């Protein structure tokens, strides 16, 4: 009967009419196995219609209420009726009402069994001039200061999405001081791709509010069939999305990588605040089903639901801070929309097909040393997370140069290979650090100088050494003092000698509450400039929260005073860096010891133009975000992909970077100086970091434990950096702290071993 109906309705006279009467779109269901052949052979479909989606997947039929036919064909009139094709223009066909299953319904039919896919066969492309991502809008959640990240996105995967018909905007919180950071961005006004959400302060704890504000803006300004919410540290593959998205339902859609039966962690960044537990968790202490917030796909009506529930006058802190779970609860409670699992999306180039997302959360809990290579060998992925701007650029370059086989067929995708290679390294380091076989400060094993080199594609230029060294007088060298102990006195003598042997601007920055100026002057001589600092003075310059988190564990004034002197001439009454023509300055804490002449070390880097030079640099602090340190929560710069950390007990900083740090702190934002300084540099185009080569410069450089000068003599290597080095009296005073530190490390190791024993790890 289906074939007879087709012939009666679709058989066209010759020549075919310019426009068929009747509906502009069809949803055709038939039990006939040859219905697809009949559609092509006996109708005017090749002339008047485009096939928009064909599927024989029974799981897709479960999306239909009451449907039981094994074949679905979604048709859209295009060539024969001007303006009638599906799209985002003013004249579009009406979205067909294909509801997903109601909330609470068992989703087993949507989950993979073996190698079955949620969407077994997706649209391979649309005939004619139709672009596969027309009607798709990317809402990229970005942090205001991450200018380099946005530049990398524009130059890599977003360029590919736009070429396939998609549109996009970056969404940024726009509190009163955010414009000073947006000013870093060289945005073409004709492009206008940044949306500032007025009155919103960007913060991890405000993400649910930001998502609601974004949904409201999209609902009011965007005409799109699909909205893809994506974080700025996700790297999607355009070809895969172009195959999957056009075949998804256009109504009641909330799809991504499903998370089911998850309980909140007991510590770390994602620990659930107590005030939300009763309202969010079920009787088993689990979250409701949701999809990962890094990347998910919504239809226009689900975005409208989110927009309708957003109150711009609400306090963001009253909302659940985890936006992915918050979105799931809103859609379930207000529209009975449940999440659709796209974990298995496509047949792919890997033996096991294409999965939705390869993320750190996916492989971190797999203890096998070859976990990532196994995943990457067996599966392809639609997206990768977390991916830094540096890795995006490298992956894009690799994709452009992907090798082909003898028949010209492209081998494994360059994006896939690049991301998997880095994730494998990340996974290996993570487990070795957890197993106590790799120390965090084992600098030689963590050394990656290429991690901070950015290419021209991101709007940056590779930083080459200067051909001519600038004069030594353009570099200040500070010894930072909080005492006049044994090691400090030795360093002061070295500073006095350096002032006579070099043209470096030798200075000592000392805490007036702990150091007697007259005694210091007698020890340092007249050639070294003495600059005082105090907690009261520095705390008055910066907002209280910014000062307390940036200064460090003890509220010491040293790091704020450094930024003040380098960045603000007015704050130092004409004695600042600008007034003295200083472009860079070294800052050396008093418990650093260099087994040579300091000027030898400083001269070595005169031709290095980098804004931050440090012996230690970690692009991703291991354990983040599972390992909790409260200063991470204070630092509003860090993301999963770029959680940079530098132990800057000895470092060189440029005046330009110091000014950026000063502006950041004045905006009321905070974070420990070991995170804020490198993180800001990574996010700003043109800023560069250089790590001292540990094979040439460093012998022992870490946070704990401290050693005395006798230990240094026993482990002496010329022209090497040692830290921390303290007098025996200071070490004895700190013994309880050191012992507590060791005991804490032992407890963590025991807990980790217990976890391994309870798991399937060998």
Largest sheet, in brief, is:
7 strands, mixed
The tally of helices reads 29
SS class: alpha/beta
Separation of the first and last Cα atoms: 61 Å
Physical arrangement of strands within the biggest beta sheet: 6-5-4-7-10-9-11
CATH architecture of the largest domain: Alpha-Beta Complex
Low-confidence region ranges:
1-26, 30-128, 404-411, 454-462, 570-574
GO molecular function, one term: hexosyltransferase activity
Protein name: Hexosyltransferase
Subcellular location: Golgi apparatus membrane
Pfam families: Galactosyl_T
Describe the structure.
Keywords: Glycosyltransferase, Golgi apparatus, Membrane, Signal-anchor, Transferase, Transmembrane, Transmembrane helix. It is a single-pass type II membrane protein. The chain is α/β, with parallel strands linked by helices. Helix 14 packs antiparallel against helix 16, helix 15 runs antiparallel to helix 16 (414-434) and helix 20 crosses helix 22. The chain starts with a helix and ends with a helix. Residues 1-26, 30-128, 404-411, 454-462 and 570-574 have low confidence and may be disordered. The chain is 35% helix and 16% strand. Helix 18 (486-501) links the parallel strand 15 and strand 16. The radius of gyration is 30 Å and the shape is elongated.
């Amino acid at each position: 009967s289906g074939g007879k109906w087709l012939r009666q309705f679709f058989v066209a006279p010759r020549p075919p009419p310019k426009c068929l009467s009747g509906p502009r779109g069809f949803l055709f269901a038939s039990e006939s196995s040859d219905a697809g052949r009949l559609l092509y052979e006996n109708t005017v479909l090749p002339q008047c219609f485009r096939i928009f989606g064909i599927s024989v997947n029974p799981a897709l039929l479960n999306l239909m209420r009451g449907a039981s036919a094994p074949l679905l064909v979604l048709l859209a009139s295009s060539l024969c009726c001007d303006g009638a094709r599906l799209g985002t223009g003013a004249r579009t066909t009406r979205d067909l009402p294909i509801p997903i299953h109601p909330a609470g319904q068992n989703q087993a039919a949507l989950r993979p069994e073996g190698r079955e896919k949620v969407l077994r066969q997706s649209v391979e492309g649309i005939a004619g001039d139709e672009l596969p991502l027309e009607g798709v809008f990317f809402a990229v959640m970005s942090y205001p200061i991450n200018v380099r990240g946005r530049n990398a996105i524009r130059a890599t995967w977003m360029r590919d999405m736009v070429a396939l018909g998609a549109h996009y905007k970056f969404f940024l919180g726009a509190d009163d001081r955010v414009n000073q950071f947006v000013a870093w961005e060289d945005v073409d006004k004709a492009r206008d791709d940044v949306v500032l959400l007025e009155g919103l302060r960007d913060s991890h704890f405000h993400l649910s509010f930001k998502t609601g504000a974004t949904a409201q803006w999209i609902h009011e300004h965007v005409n799109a069939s699909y909205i893809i919410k994506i974080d700025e540290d996700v790297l999607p593959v355009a070809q895969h999305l172009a195959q999957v998205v056009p075949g998804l339902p256009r109504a009641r859609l909330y799809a991504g990588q499903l998370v089911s039966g998850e309980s909140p962690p007991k510590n770390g960044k994602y620990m659930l605040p107590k005030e939300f537990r009763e309202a969010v968790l079920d009787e088993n202490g689990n979250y409701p089903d949701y999809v990962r917030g890094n990347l998910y796909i919504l239809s226009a009506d689900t975005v409208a639901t989110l927009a309708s529930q957003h109150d711009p006058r609400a306090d963001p802190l009253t909302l659940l801070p985890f936006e992915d779970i918050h979105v799931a609860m809103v859609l379930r409670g207000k529209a009975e929309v449940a999440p659709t699992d796209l974990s298995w999306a496509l047949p792919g180039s890997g033996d096991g097909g294409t999965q939705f997302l390869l993320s750190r959360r996916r492989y971190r809990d797999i203890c096998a040393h070859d976990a990532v290579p196994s995943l990457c060998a067996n599966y392809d992925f639609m997206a990768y997370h977390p991916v830094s701007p540096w890795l995006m650029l490298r992956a894009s370059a690799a994709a452009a140069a992907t090798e082909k086989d003898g028949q010209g067929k492209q081998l494994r995708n360059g994006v896939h290979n690049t991301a998997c290679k880095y994730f494998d390294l990340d996974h290996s380091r993570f487990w070795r650090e957890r197993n106590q076989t790799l120390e965090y400060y084992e600098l030689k094993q963590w050394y990656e100088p290429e991690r901070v080199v950015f290419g021209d594609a991101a709007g940056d230029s590779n930083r080459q050494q200067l051909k001519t060294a600038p004069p030594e007088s353009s570099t200040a060298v500070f010894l930072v003092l909080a005492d006049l102990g044994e090691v400090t006195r030795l360093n002061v003598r070295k500073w006095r000698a350096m002032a006579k042997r070099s043209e470096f601007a030798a200075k000592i920055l000392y805490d007036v509450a702990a150091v007697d100026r007259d005694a210091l002057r007698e020890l340092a001589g007249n050639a070294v400039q003495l600059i005082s600092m105090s907690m009261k003075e520095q705390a008055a310059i910066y907002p209280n929260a910014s000062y307390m988190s940036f200064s460090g564990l003890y509220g010491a004034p040293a790091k704020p005073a450094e930024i003040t002197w380098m960045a603000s001439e007015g704050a130092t009454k004409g004695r600042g860096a600008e007034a003295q023509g200083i472009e860079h300055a070294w800052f050396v804490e008093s418990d650093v010891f260099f087994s040579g002449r300091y000027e030898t070390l400083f001269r070595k880097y005169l031709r290095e133009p980098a804004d931050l030079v440090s012996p230690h640099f970690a692009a991703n602090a291991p354990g983040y975000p599972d390992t909790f340190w409260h200063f991470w929560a204070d630092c509003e710069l860090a993301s999963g992909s770029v959680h940079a950390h530098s132990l800057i007990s000895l470092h060189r900083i440029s005046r330009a970077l110091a000014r950026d740090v000063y502006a950041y702190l004045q905006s009321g934002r905070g974070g420990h100086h070991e995170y804020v300084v490198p993180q800001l540099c990574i996010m700003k185009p043109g800023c560069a970091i250089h790590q001292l080569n540990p094979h040439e410069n460093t012998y022992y450089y870490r946070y704990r434990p401290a050693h005395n000068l006798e230990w240094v003599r026993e482990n002496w290597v010329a022209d090497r950096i040692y830290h921390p080095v303290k007098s025996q009296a200071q070490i004895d005073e700190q013994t309880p702290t050191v012992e507590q530190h060791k005991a804490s490390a032992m407890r963590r190791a025991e807990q980790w071993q217990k976890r391994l024993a309870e798991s399937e790890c060998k």
